[in-house]
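Lab notebook: predicted structure, single chain.

Context: the supervisor wants predicted structures on file for every construct in the current expression panel, including those that have not yet been purified. This is the next one on the list. No modifications to the sequence; it matches the entry in the shared construct table.
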Amino acid sequence: MHWTEMLLSVVSSFSLTIMAMPIVIGYFRTKQLGQTTRDEGPKWHEVKTGTPTMGGVVFLIASVISAVWVGIWQKSFTISLSLLLFITLLYGLLGFLDDFIKIFRKRNLGLTSKQKLIGQLVGGILFFIVYQSNNLSTDLSFPLIGSIDLGWFYGVFSLFWLVGFSNAVNLTDGLDGLVAGTAGIAYTAYAFIAWNQQQIDVFIFCLTVVGGLVGFFFFNKKPAKIFMGDVGSLALGGGLAAVSILLKQEWSLLLIGLIFVIETASVMIQVTSFKLTGKRVFKMSPIHHHFEMSGWSEWRVVLTFWFISLVTAALSLWFIIY
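Prediction complete. Output recorded below exactly as produced.
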């Protein structure tokens, strides 16, 4: 294993996050800038109103800085690493704008869904243009069929993957420590896959994100002192999709990121059912709120979802590596 890259990547982003986060939390508290809980959300979440958000800014910047200097020092600053940083920063910027509007206008609605979608699509198109221009593989493997070169149609798949998982992680971010843990597990799994493929650039990127998330968790565990906000969740989801594409393990994200898939499916099922029948399948969606409404404690939901993520990540590694 490339111990130098691993230690540098994790320790750098972890340290930067741990040092900067208290300053950010202090600033938001001094300015009395915090999150407003949704009116339709669980009533016991009202105590979280006023909690600082946009913590994702800190671990994203820490991860990007670490990935850049470690990548350059280890001579692994490649087009793949550049693409990962690009999509992470762009989706993070969309989330930042969304959070900024929410906080400074004191409301829980930021950018419209259409505005966010346009931004995500533009980012995805630019991602694929650079991807294609550098002659990276446009093959997509299908179970029982094998790999098929989709050419420009791979761009359509990439757009769907990037936008879909960016929003999926965003939907999952509703409980203290939930996304910090599930995304951390997913990025760790992909770090192992990248190491196995000797893609050191992707390996470095994944580990810098893991380091940042571990540092962030110290402040995001229940009761959270700060939330990651859309700036963190949109970037994490887009980054995961981009990693799976660059490692040519696209379908693995359905298993490694199973929690994100389930959370998104629960929202789709809920909306569809209500529109067609006027009845709700779940007590509340995304599904983590359903379990809360069923009497589960927040920690029980979070730990259960973490456990599921660990199992699916381990299964994926077993299938792919062994």
